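Q: Got a minute? One more chain.
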Amino acid sequence: MAAKRKSRRAFGRIRKLPSGRFQARYPGPDGVLRAADQTFATTTDADRWLARKRIEMGEARWLDPAEGRTTVRDWSARWLTAVSPQLKHKTQASYRSLVNSLIVPALGDRELSSLRPITIVEWVGAMKTRGLSASRIRQAYRVLSQIMRAAVDNEMIGQTPCRGVKLPRMSQTEPHILTPLEASRIVRSATKPHDLLISLLAYAGLRVGEAFALRRADIDGSGGLVLVDENLAEANGTLVFDTPKSHEKRVLRIGRHSRRGSAGTWRRCPAGRTLSSSSRPAASLCITTSGARRTSTPPWRLPGSPTSRRTISAPRTGRGSPTGTA
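A: Always. Here it is, folded:
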C-alpha cells in the first residue's frame, strides 16, 4: 500500500523545535514571514493560533507585532512632535513637562503592547503615594491617554490601556462671585493700570491673558470697543503671545462707566510707543510693569492679596445673572 501523502497546510507553517515544542509562522499582509510570539505544546494548538491570525487579516484587524514593541519613550516623542504645531505654546510646554517628568521616567522603557490597565492603575497609585496633587495626576493621565489613543488609531496596539482607571477626585470649592458693588470697590482701591485690568476682567469678560495682551491699536475708546485677538501666557518661564483660548478673534463692547475710567490709561499708551519685549514692535501693550515691560502677574493676584481668593469675573445682578457691560 502506498504511503499516505502529507497534506499541504493552507495557511502558515508549523515546525517542531529541538525542545519538542512547535513554532508557528505565517505571512503578513506584506508577505513577510513572521513567527508567533510563543511556542506551542501540540500542532493543534499552533493550528488554532494560525487560524486566529488568518481571521484577523481577513477582517482587517491584524496588527504588526513590531509596531507594538515600540517603547513608550519613542512613541511619546513622536506623538509630541506631531501634535505640537496644532497646540498653543503653553499647552506644548505643559505636555512636554508631563511627558518628561511623569510619563517617561515611569513607563518610558515599556513596550506599547505590554501595557495593561493594571499598569496604569499602578502608575496613578505611585504618583498619589509621592504626594502629587489630584490635578497634576489627572493632567498626566489625560496626556498618556491621548498618546495611547493615537497608538490605537495608528494600528500599533489593539486597544488603549487607559480604560477603567479610577483617578483621584479634585477638591470642590464654591467660588465667590463678586457683586457689582464688590467689583467697584476693588477697582477703586487698585493702583493704575491694575484698576483698568480688573475692570476689564469684571465687566468685559476678558481672560487675564487676553487683558495683558491688549495693545493700543486694539482699543476704540470713542466707540467703547475692544478687539481681542491675542493672549499672553507663560510657558517654561517665558512670556509668549498666542491666539485666544477659542483661537478666534472677538470684539467686546465696554460700558460707559469703564470707558470713563480707562480713558486716561489709553492716553498714557500712545500707538507709536515701542516695547523691547513685544513681538509686534509697531504696537504698544496697554498694561505693563513700571519699567514698560509686559507682565502676567499683577500685585493683586500675588498670594495673600485680598483678592487672590476671589473670582474676578462678570458680577451678578440682583437676580443672579451676569451683567453685560459696565
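A: DSSP finds ten helices and eight strands in the chain.
Q: Perfect, thanks.
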